[in-house]
Amino acid sequence: MKHLVPVLLIAILVVSLPAGVAGAAGGTVTDSSDHGVAPTGPTQATGGASDVPIRNHLGAPAASIGGSDDVLHRTTTLRQLPDRPGEFETEKTFDVPDPVVSLEIDLESRATVVGAEGFEETADGTYRWTEVVDEPSIRFTMPANRTGDVGHHAGGSAVGDGFGVSTFSHGGESAARGGDGYTFVETGEWGIVRVPGISVSLQQTSSVGVDETVRIDGPGATGGDLAFFGEVSEYERPVAGETIRLVVPEAAEADLAAAPETILETLAWGSERLDVGARSDDVFVVAVPADLEWGPQGVQYGDSDAWVVADSPLEHPANVWLHEYVHVRQGYTGDDVGTTSETQWLVEAQAEYYAATLAFEKGLIEFDEFSRFLAGGERSPYADAALADPDTWTDDRTDYVKGRLVYGELDRQLRLATDGDRTAEDVFRVLNAGEGTLTGEAYLELLEQAGGETVRSAAERYVRSDETPTMWSQADHAAAFDLQGATFEYGLDGDALAAGGELWPLTERDGHDGKTTAVPVDEPVSVPVRLDNVGDRDGTADATLEVDGRVVDYTQPHLEAGEEETANLTWTPDEPGEYTLRIGDETVTVFVRSDASVHVADLDLEPTEVRPDEPVTATATVENPDEVPAAAVLEFRTHEGGVGDHPVFLEPGETATITEELLFDADGEYEVVIGEQSATVVVQTTPPAELEQVPGFGLAAAVLALSVALVAARIDRARRR
To answer: Which member of 36, 59, 97, 374 has the greatest number of CB atoms within 10 A?
Structure first.
């Protein structure tokens, strides 16, 4: 009687990889000892292929996990077609890991397939992996040119358009440059295009992550969501945990309103100043040539990519460079989150307000310019509308114009109501930590939590009706904005993360900033955080846990001056991949791994023949053949299911053993399985070795006696049923 254990469990995963999400922000990060004080470059990118590091399927930047068996790697290669202006070619190649038993992809509706290897078209227009090759690929062309109104910033949350749009401002009012001009274009000489997205459906035997490298076959640059075709120079600067890449095409050099170093320094200053979380590892900004009929003056697309018309000035309250950067920091508008009609005004209002505020604080503009810019919201038709009801907007720039004034007034009142302890940035940070859709009521509740009923009441008047605030004076500005809150420092507390009831050690690793560790997938990860009020006044702390730029958890305790506290912030990774955790100025690289990352090399059972209820010691030898740490929670499986949870953490190349004591209460032959290994134990009431020692029993008699004993045992169990 042999008890077999089923070992093939197939799960179905549908991964949506829309345009603007499936790419990878990044590029070669230049090591700089000045910690971002001065930019690098420029670096000429004049030929060959421009590569961008890998990101996971959520669209968050991530590096490759090497040869791991729990990640589906995809390489997207873009090619310019100089003889066919308005089009470009895309090739997607998949490196399929062993746990994937079925793969199907769905392209955008405007894609025209020109070649495929290892894929076959289905009746419903998708493409299925034939399993003949391990690295299937598909090539298709896409139309590049897009015109017209691209709508509001949506962070690339759906297949189609996800944009943050800047318009140029004259006399305090936003006016779209060029009306229905281009948002994306390919001229044959150069082009700015969006990286096409796809949807991927998988059938898998264990959890599998998805990541992507985006590259250009030829001159150009890409951030993973946007791509530029043509000769470029690149400038970059690491600052506040992210690297900002400014790409200046050869065709746009004469159009630049300022030197590339000056533009980059302004963006870096905004990055350091804007403390709202949702910080990407890499921000990719292209200065596009000005000699074209553009619709908007700038577009932010995907997670952290943007383009800005090269002649856009820095010394202006409608600073397009900073406007698009603010959109990059709006994590609450991305995947699985978003706004309703009542809160969509916030997206452009924030970008307008902070662009002007940062320009003023940096000294690029004077207060009277800042004041006139916000005061535009006092005038008709903008003032006649209710921000929470877009149907009342007679001008589609109402969220830009009235929105920035209202947002600024709420910021001012928050500061006054809390003596500088709370600002609109603190509420912005909480928005970035939210899940699901931001409703109007939820936003009002956050304002009330931060500043009390007075601030909420003001928001209700200015957002839900046509009541409009009046722009405040310079003296009133100083009275509110010069208030100083408490000063806090945040950092990691301890040398391990907790997951699955176990501690996973933090180690130093070459090629990674900060510490690294590995944790198993689908286990809540507890991150110990230290909060320290280092100032001379009491205040509210804002400790956040960011994962790949997104705030996933936060705590806001009130601490007295000099007081220190610890807290645990939590994140549950649901897919394998490489993630960057940030706490204050500290980062931790976390490799999230499935059981497939730990290779079970051998399984030994001792003894292999026992009586019922006698212990059997199972010993498994496990190893990590990869170049990064492995983590898994393994269990021995028998006919009754899993036995014991064994957390395993292995450094690259490391080998270890895990043991478990097993018991079997009835005669039979049992299979024990762990990972890819299996072994068998025989359980019987009277082992053959003992029968041989009984007088009068030879081998034949022993076999006969054993058979009789087994039959008797089965009959006895049948009677007991």
So the answer is: 59
Tell the residue number behind the tokens 């992507």, with chain if given.
212
Is residue 42 within 8 Å of residue 235, measured between CB atoms? Answer: yes
pTM for the full model?
Answer: 0.81
Say whether pLDDT at 555 is over 90. Answer: yes
The label of the residue with tokens 């908007």 reads 296
Distance separating alpha carbons of residues 420 and 323, to the nearest angstrom: 25
Q: Are 671 and 639 in contact (CB under 8 A)?
A: yes
CB atoms within 10 A of CB 485: 19
Task: Give pLDDT tens digits for 520-538.
Answer: 999 999 999 999 999 899 9
What is the DSSP code (8-state) at residue 378? G
CA distances from 284 to 144, 151, 245, 448 (A): 19, 21, 5, 36
Nearest to 449 by CA among 474, 429, 469, 471: 429
Is residue 696 left, alpha or beta, with left meaning phi > 0 and alpha meaning psi from -120 to 50? left
Between CA 647 and CA 654 the distance in angstroms is 15
Six-digit token pair at 167?
A: 């318009």
SS3 at position 381:
coil
Q: What is the maximal distance between C-alpha atoms in the chain?
A: 113
Whole-angstrom CA distances from 306 to 162, 169, 328, 463, 719 are: 11, 19, 8, 29, 76
539 has which bridge partners? 559
Q: Are 241 and 251 in contact (CB under 8 A)?
A: no
Does the bond joining 695 to the residue before it have cis omega, within 30 degrees of 0?
Answer: no
- The pLDDT tens digits of the residues spanning 420-477 come to 999 999 999 999 998 889 999 999 999 999 999 999 999 999 999 999 999 999 999 9
Query: With respect to CATH, is domain 488-595 assigned 2.30.30.40?
Result: no
Which pLDDT value is given to residue 50? 52
449 by Cβ neighbours in 10 Å (0-12 / 13-18 / 19+) ranks as: middle
Q: Locate the DSSP E strands across 515-571.
A: 515-520, 525-533, 539-540, 543-547, 550-555, 558-559, 564-571
CA–CA separation, 603 and 88 (whole Å) = 53
Residues in the chain: 721
What is the SS3 assignment for 469?
coil
- The domain segmentation of the chain, as residue ranges, is 10-271+280-305, 336-485, 488-595, 685-721
The average pLDDT across 488-515 equals: 88
Which stretch of DSSP H or E encloses residue 23?
A: none
Percent of the chain with pLDDT over 70: 81
Tell me the CATH class for 336-485. mainly alpha
| 121 contacts 167 by C-beta, under 8 angstroms | no
Which pLDDT score is estimated for 312?
97
Measured between alpha carbons, how far is 657 from 618 in angstroms, rounded to an integer? Answer: 10
Contact 171, 379 (CB under 8 A): no
Q: Are 32 and 40 in contact (CB under 8 A)?
A: yes
436-438 and 337-339 strand pairing: parallel
| Residue whose C-alpha is closest to residue 429's, from 525, 268, 534, 556 | 556
Question: In terms of C-beta distances under 8 Å and separation of at least 24 residues, what long-range contacts does 174-179 make, across chains too?
Answer: 174/318, 174/352, 174/397, 174/400, 174/401, 175/397, 176/295, 176/296, 176/297, 176/397, 177/294, 177/295, 177/296, 177/297, 177/309, 178/293, 178/294, 178/295, 178/296, 179/295
Nearest Cα neighbor of 475 from 371, 357, 359, 404 is 371
Phi and psi, residue 441, nearest 5° = -65, -40
